[in-house]
């Protein structure tokens, strides 16, 4: 059971933040970060990712998960490659602010784990995303790791 404290969606769903008692997750729509079917960051993407990195710093995050997702259009294999490449690009951008002393888990999941209905464009748009998750308010230097 997940104890959701709050979910905030802004800018027409371009960014979604979920807070639980243990984690903070930002879901950034792919269209905001990347051109269609590309993993090259848009110029404005760096500022969005930097804002998420600042939030991670406030929470003294030492472990960050960066997961990429696609919709169900195209082949599953293409989605895996694209979602992983997008997660890698966001990871590289996070390192610019957070440095490499943070432990990163970076994965691409293709169309697995949709958060909306893939049968319409509105849902597919929400499913094309990169999620950045880190522990909430972890004490700096603490050795505790949330359950995996």
UniProtKB/TrEMBL annotation:
Coiled-coil stretches: none
Span of domain OmpA-like: 21-138
Keyword Zinc-finger (UniProt): no
Sequence segments annotated as region (Disordered): 1-20, 115-148
Protein location: Cell outer membrane
Low complexity composition-biased segments: 137-148
PROSITE patterns with a match to the protein in the record: OMPA_2
Cited Pfam families: OmpA
Major site of localization recorded for this protein: membrane
Keyword flag Electron transport: no
Keywords annotated in UniProt: Cell outer membrane, Membrane
InterPro entries named among the record's database cross-references: Bact_OuterMem_StrucFunc, OMP_bac, OmpA-like, OmpA-like_sf
Recorded superkingdom: Bacteria
One CC-aspect GO term: cell outer membrane
PANTHER family xrefs: LIPOPROTEIN YIAD-RELATED, STATOR ELEMENT OF FLAGELLAR MOTOR COMPLEX
Protein name: OmpA-like domain-containing protein
Native source species: Streptomyces finlayi
